[in-house]
Structure formats: structure tokens, C-alpha cells
Amino acid sequence: MTDEQLAEMAATGDQEAFASLYGRYKQALFNFAWRVVGEAGLAEDAAQESLVAAFRHIQRFDPAKGSFKTWMFTIAHNECRHSFRFRGWWSYSENSGNESSGPKAIAPYSGCSLDEKLDLERALKQLSAKYRIPLILCRLHGLSTRECAEVLKLSEVNVKQRVFRAIHRLQEIFLTGDKSNRE
Amino acid sequence: MKCGEVNRIVQSLLAGEGADPPPELLEHLRDCQSCEGRFATLLTIASNLKHLPDRKLPEGFDVRFWLRMARRARKKRKKAWQSWMLSIAANDEVRWVLMLLLSVASVAVALGDSVAAPRHPLLISASNIVVMAVGLLLAAVFLHAGSYSDVIVRIFRRKTR
């Protein structure tokens, strides 16, 4: 059964349909929130609030306007912004890279070992939110450029540019270990 | 495949369009040192991003979520009660009836007590005057509730957020 069908059932008060949607999205939303806010407690709050808000307003979901996934990530993105509002949007992106000792270079076309994945996570944290969020949505959660543009209220061209620049910055971080590469 | 074409394909791949790099592209990158230097690491990073592991959900995540849902449901029930009260306040006929009932009841309580007491019927005790005043005040509030129901709604919404 598709997410949209389950959302339609949940809108009529079907608790099991909502439980299925919860099961499908809890991990993805937690991953997204954790990579955006960078702290497990805040990420949990943001993910749970997104799911609660989705359930409360599930009648407002309109499949004609976009997929359920896009709708969920829009809510999650708003919740993350809400978390940032209390901490200062830039505080996280300015400080997050300090814990890292700088990622090691990765060999082209190699299989990705656990160490390299950790390095990639650290490098990702060094990007500013402006570049990190479109990259996370497009590359990690598989949203198309159009869907990502809908979530972030940006143009498709803008999203493409940000993703492209984000990967370029990651490359710079890997090649030079440049930790001051923040905006 | 020419270098210009490689540039175009790589850009669209990095933006998330298309799946894995096509074999012709990989072949070109093996043969062309210039393109290899420019794009190999970019493509590797883009490809490895997809395979980052899930973060482990914190212990008790599910329990806390369903507790949060239960709290929201309680608030929602409270909201239903508030909206019922507001719908009554918004109805002109109901407000008039309530106003009349309250006025009659408060005057009856105040005067009835004085009549029953073994003293002059016009001597009303201070407590009865207070009862009557509160009753008439409530009646007046009910009568004008429609004009400030928007304000009440806004106050309730702010409190229940």
C-alpha cells in the first residue's frame, strides 16, 4: 500500500494506517533531523513533533500538490528550523566541525568502509546548513530536485546549484582537510 | 564520449538526477586524466553519500512518541469542550435565554432571601447584593459574548498551543 493511500485512511481516523506511516518514516525523519540539527535529543524532538504534527493535520495533505514524502519532509524541515530558532540558526553550523580532527582522503571508486563513512559524516557536518540540507534531502533521502525545491521553497535551479556546490565543498574538505570552509 | 559531455552528465548526476554513473562515463574517466582529476572524487563522494548508515534511534523513542500523541489527544478533547462553549456564546438566542435566566435567578435569590427573613422585605443583605450583581454581570457578559468571541478564541488558541 502506498504512503498516499495510508495517509487517506489515516485522515479518516484509521489508527493502524497512521501506525504504518509512523513505522515507515520514524527512522528517515530521525536521520534527517539528526544530520540537520546535529544532536540526538533535539533530533528526537524534531522527528517526533513532525510525526505528531503530520497526524494532527493529516486531513490537510493533498496528493495533488505533491507526494506524502515531500509533505513529511517539509514538516520535518520546519520543525528543525523551529529547533534552530531557540539555539540560533548558525550556532550549529559554526561549531559543529570543531570536534572533527579533519577527514582522511578517500580513494576514488573504493567501497565505502566504516571509517570512511564516519569521515563523510564529519565532513558533512562541516558544511553550512544552506548547502547541507539540500544535499541530505537529495542524496541521502532520494528526493528529486523538484521535491527538494518544494520542501525548501527554492527554485529547482537553486537546489541543483546548492547540491553541486555542497559536493564540491566536500571534495575540498577531503582533499585539503580544510575545516574553515564554512559559510 | 567527449569531455564537454562528461561535464554535463556529471553535473546532472551530482544534482541527483539519474542513478549510477553510466559505463561510458567510467570508461572515459579511466582514459582521460584531466576528467579523472576533476570528477572522480566528486562522483565517489556523491555515490558514498547514499550508503551512509542510519542513526540508531534513541532508547524509548517509540514509547515517548506515543505518550506525546496521548498528551495531544487530551489537549484535543479539551479543545472540543472549548469550541462547544464558544459555539454557545456565538448563538444570539441562547445568549438571550441565558441572560434572562441568570437575571431572574440572581434577583430571585437576592429578594427571596430577604422576603423569607423575619425583617423588612426591602432590607437586602450585602451578600445578596453581591449575588445579584454577579448574576447581572454574567448576564451582560453572555449578552455581549458575540462581540468579543474572536478575542476569546485567540486567547484559548494561544494557551493550548
What are the key terms here?
heterodimer, A: 183 residues, mainly alpha, Rna Polymerase Sigma Factor, Chain: A, Arc Repressor Mutant, subunit A, 2 domains, 70% helix, disordered C terminus, B: 161 residues, 77% helix
Find the biggest chain interface. A-B, 47 and 30 residues
The CATH architecture of the largest domain in chain A is Orthogonal Bundle
Distance between the termini of chain A: 42 Å
Helical amount of chain A? over 70%
At the third CATH level, what is the topology name of the largest domain in chain A?
Answer: Rna Polymerase Sigma Factor, Chain: A
Mean pLDDT of chain A: 80
- Quaternary state reads heterodimer
Rg on CA atoms of chain B, Å: 38 Å
Q: Which stretches of chain A of 5+ consecutive residues score pLDDT under 50?
A: 90-102, 106-111, 179-183
Low-confidence parts of chain B lasting 5 or more residues at pLDDT below 50? none
Main sheet summary of chain B: none
Write a brief structural summary.
The complex is a heterodimer of chains A (183) and B (161). Chain A has 183 residues and is an all-alpha fold. Helices cover 70% and strands 0% of the residues of chain A.
Sequence-ordered SSE layout with sheet pairings:
The complex is a heterodimer of chains A (183) and B (161).
Chain A (H helix, E strand, L loop, with lengths): L2 H9 L3 H23 L2 H17 L11 H20 L1 H7 L18 H12 L3 H12 L4 H8 L3 H21 L7
Helix pairs in contact in A: 1-2, 2-3, 2-4, 3-4, 4-5, 4-8, 7-9, 8-9
Chain B lengths: L2 H12 L8 H9 L1 H17 L11 H30 L1 H25 L9 H19 L4 H12 L1
Helix pairs in contact in B: 1-3, 2-3, 4-7, 5-6
